[in-house]
Amino acid sequence: MAKALPANLEQIEVNLKKLTNQRTRSSLLGIAILILIFFGGTLVSLEANAGSFGRGIANFFNYPRDLFVDTFEMGWKYWPRVIKYIPELIITLNIALFSTSIGFILAIIFAIFSSRNLIRNKRVIQFTKFLMDVTRSFPTLIIAMVFLYLMGKSSLPAVIAITIHTAGALGKLFTEAIENCDGKPIEGLSSVGATWTQKIRFSVLPQVLPLFLSYGILRLEINVRESTILGFVGAGGIGEMLAALIQWNYGADVLACMLLLVGTIIALDYLSAYWRHKLIGANQ
Amino acid sequence: MSSSLAIQRENIRKLFPDTFKQARKSRLRGQIIFFLVLVYLIVGFFTLDVVDIPKKWKPQNAAMFVLDTYAHKDHVTMKWENHEDIKIAFEGNYRSVYGRDNLDKSIPDWFYKNSDNVGNVVEFNNKGKAILYKDKVEIVNFPKYERDFTIKLNSNGKPYLVGSEDLVIEDLKGFRITENRVEFRPTLYERIQVYPKKVEIHRYSIGWKYFWFDFSSPLEPYSFFEALGLTFSKERVVPEMSNLKLFLTEIKDNEAFMHGRVWWAMLETIVMAVLGTMFATVMALPLSFLAAYNVTPIKALRFTLRRLFDTLRGIDFLIWSLIFLRAFGPGPFTGIFAIGFTDTGTLGKLYSEAIENTEKKQQEGVQSTGASKFLQHRFGIIPQILPIFVSQSLYYLESNTRGAVIIGAMGAGGIGLQFLGALGTGNDFENVAYMAILVLAVVIFMDRLSAWLRRILIGSDQLIVR
What is the fold of A76-283? Predict the structure, then answer.
């Protein structure tokens, strides 16, 4: 059979074998590296962890169980408790929504000044990109803690931190969206003598706005989580309340806050998926 | 010309009335939305006290904070009761005193006897001098000040500026005088405070001093590269250990910047992010197959798994880390499992969507050869989704690095907790800056690493969604 094959097919066979071998080798290498990282990491964790791994596994259900036991003891009186924390939740949502809005506007400005198809000056683009990289890479918590130290306890540090991070994170996505948009409408407007602002308003913005809004909604969802976390270090809202309740060991109230949070996040998850589907789905 | 254009426009308007009506309607909707957003922003502006920023923003505090992140200071303290006993300490730390016998640390050259052989001179970087006498402090030679000043104690033992009643406000710029203190701070870098009991002088210089070797280290007289050069010489700096070992331990045990502890904490944080992402990937891989309709025919199982993903994701790593913190105590395991559980939900959802969006044809091709179900999935689906899996997991690696810093600050340890501790001391701001830069560098490094891995593994560093 093999003799009937033309010479170049044999060559292909040899090459295929070589490629397969190479692939197997690099796969094995990859797996070996992963295993090495896994064991190295586990060693570091075992060394650094205060409690042992086995005891931790054994205790895993204790805390959730305590919370539920506390809650069941209260019976129907529990639900007013849940409602009691809604104002705190609204503060958290307010922080997230406000800083997302401001960050969204800043991100659009960033994106316009870092898109190659809108700005000719390379220096400006590089500088804006650098600015976005830095603002995006700092964890919000670090910015927030520094501002909390400087300004005292209030929601403002959280607003500043989330706004800065959002501007960088969205700015990067927006830049990609603008750079990937269709160039023909811009050319069309150039041909009738439109100014730079008119070109952005009538050719770029209509193309990218649905995408922008979709990214913005996704960011809002992330920012609700972020603002809860920042509450933990003293920025107010349900996070701060939860931190205090945990310290006082009010099991039922802790669970109430957690329920509110989880409910909000799941609801936002579905809402954002729905909105984004409407925005993008209708357009493409 | 313009009138003919107007006529043309009118004609077009008449030809397509519906289109124009719709355009006006959608424009109106846009305007209403814009208006509502504006109203919300104004409401948010007031409910979140953004108007208070100027009130809360204390430029003095911020300036001190920023100054301390890039500069260091030496304290010079003189007690009035014994004016020859002058203590010079780095950052005012009682363990870092210059000129103490057991430390063999000579007095810095900006402190010397005055030419009259009575006063002791502290010379600042701007050539201004503070001269300490038995009964007075003279402030001389400051640039931008036409005259010199003298601060003395009055008969009640309170400090006062000699001749201050003859001076106009212009001359007193930089002075702050209260009943028990006269302070002179012409710029941020010089500060002279006179109290009834003592005189305290802060002398600032730019830079992170003792970054590599701390105050009491035997290697402190050498610069980093000199010390590195010493590791190749046979002659030992201290008899107990080789130069290389000394070099490494001195850097590791640096008291000011705590390199050993900080780097270990950073490693813990990276381990949390990497192992957490690995855990999530390994968990999500099989579950996502079970949650995809083109693999699993059982609707109830799919539904359960989908809700499981939603719950895992919805509980959020904050709450997960609180629960795990109780179980495992502070340490990387808390972070690993918190990240792992949350991302099992996220990745599971993304993976199962990717599986559902695969091309059917390849699977059918494998099926036509009579392959079993397992082989159909192995050769019909996995080659299609593997790049997406890798891309998604690597993409989450970077954001998990940031997440691990946060979980650390919640109490799980790592660099987040170190950062919180340094900020809490209220004066180690150079450490705060050091750790912030370190975190920034590591996050950017992880970002680049994941982009690079995506590029060599799947040929594109863009996130593939489906």
Answer: MetI-like fold (1.10.3720)
